[in-house]
Write a structure and sequence with these properties.
The protein is an all-alpha fold and 418 residues long. The chain has 20 helices and two strands. The protein has one domain. Strands 1-2 form a two-stranded antiparallel ribbon. α3 packs across α14.
Length: 418
Amino acid sequence: MPLDAKIIVLPIFIACYALAISRKVKLAYISTGTLATLILLGIMSWQDTIFQAIQWDVLAVIWGFMMVSFVFSESKMPELIANKILTHIKTEKYALLALCALSAFLSAFMANVAVLFLMAPIAMQMARKLGSPLFRYIVSVGVCANMVTTTTIIADPPALILAAQTGLQPLDFYWFQGKLGLGSITIIGVAAALLVLLFLLKDMTKKIEIEPETITVSKLPGLLFVLGIVVLAIAPQIGVSTGIVGIAVGSAALLLGRKKLKQMLYDFDWNSFIFLASIFGVIYAVTASGLLLDFAQAAVDMGITNPTVMLASVMWLSVGLSTFIDPNAYTVFMIPLCQQLAKLANISAWPLLFGTLVATGSGANILPMGAATNVFACGLLEKQNCLVSTKEYMKIGLPLSVTAVATSNIILWLVWLR
């Protein structure tokens, strides 16, 4: 793109995210308006928008598991799980921590947004039973579901992108070249973040006095949930599109919930969904304009060659950019950049690559707009008439993100650079 295109794209992009962060305008209006403006100005074509920019597979998985979430919540399984947790854990903060840890575990094997929609009904049920505000429950679950994007090779698209472009195998994520791999480092960082979360929840000291209940559940939604996880995990390995899995799982959920089909479609979070679809196009325009390339080249020209400084710079820069840059596009761009930086410093590229992905995944939790999971978490809260404040959200997202990234930064330095 010519220079004048960059001059046009940059202020439009900044205005888009400033409005989104303010949460004073519907997200769908912001992103679709921004995308339409870019198309009308000739910055990008509608053909590129439809066939290259919008990530249909991601949207299909989100739609499918949102449908599963509905039938799962209607199956009485969330009530049963909440009752089991609350009858075994006698303090509210530990109960919520257990729910967040479970969310993090599940997110290592399936789409983060899908985990949010499956765990949100449980969180809502727990909050109602204890008479507690819903905000902390949903935001904590959403952030924890989004912290484990590099725990496994299938945890999130950036992990798959890294593996595809560098040849990493599933077990390499845990022990690689005689050292801790990306997945192991992520797990340690997440564990540290969960300890910080426990500190943040220190005032949630309500004693839980809930008796076990006999709750009759429908087993089919639970089976669909398990089958969806398994198929989503193996789909990339057998050449099946994750989008097809999402559509298949969603269609099965519609069949199971056919008696409440109208409600399923009405309750769907169209605002967040449309925002995400359109923002793919906006990010595509920013990347295609060359703005990110110019920025990265400037960083290379600065001549930073100290490995410790380079690692920290790459990681914390990625934290900042991940709050508003699509992680998939960013990962594709950063892989060759990290390899080039490693050559300049005469070090292995692996710590830079690992650091980038950890920082991008965890850093996306700082702001409500940083990741799709957080966007939908806020959407769920708003549907429950719960006011979402960026400031209040950051009281949870920021310390957890900083802890996870800082811990990983230290481990990468100790294991890979010393």
